[in-house]
Amino acid sequence: MAYDRTERRSRIHRGIRKKITGSGERPRLSVFRSNTEIYAQIIDDDQGRTLCAASTREKSLKGMNVKRIEQSTAVGKLLAEKALAAGVNKVVFDRGGYLYHGRVKALAEGAREGGLQF
After folding, report:
1. Out of 28, 52, 59, 116, which could bridge 82 as a Cys pair, Cβ 3.0 to 4.6 Å?
2. pLDDT tens column, 4-41
3. Which domains does the chain have, with CATH numbers?
């Protein structure tokens, strides 16, 4: 096969990143999804630094014995909580080349429930 899923995802992600950048007033919420875990971070692209991050590997979420979609919602809520503590309430959503469906959508909805606006 000429290119596989990861190459396709990275090509789509490059196209998204041409249009989306995070600023100091409105940083970027970036999502990475693996088969077992999901990671999210809020990034200020102007300064090139991560303001806060959350994942299913967090100690507070590690013991959860629920489905991955519910874990993703919990990660979104935790990230929103950390972002509000860091003084961020508006973000730009970067789906990372993944479809806005399933775990990525659950994370976004969890972040919105937690108080982030995008």
Report:
1. 52
2. 888 999 999 999 999 999 998 999 999 999 999 999 99
3. 5-114 (3.30.420.100)
pLDDT digits (tens, 9 = 90+) for 36-65: 999 999 999 999 999 999 999 999 888 778
Dist CA 108 CA 76 (whole Å) = 6
Of 18, 49, 43, whose CA–CA distance to 31 is shortest?
A: 43
Closest-CA residue to 30 (of 80, 93, 104, 75): 93
Rounded to 5°, angle at Cα 59 from 55 and 62? 75
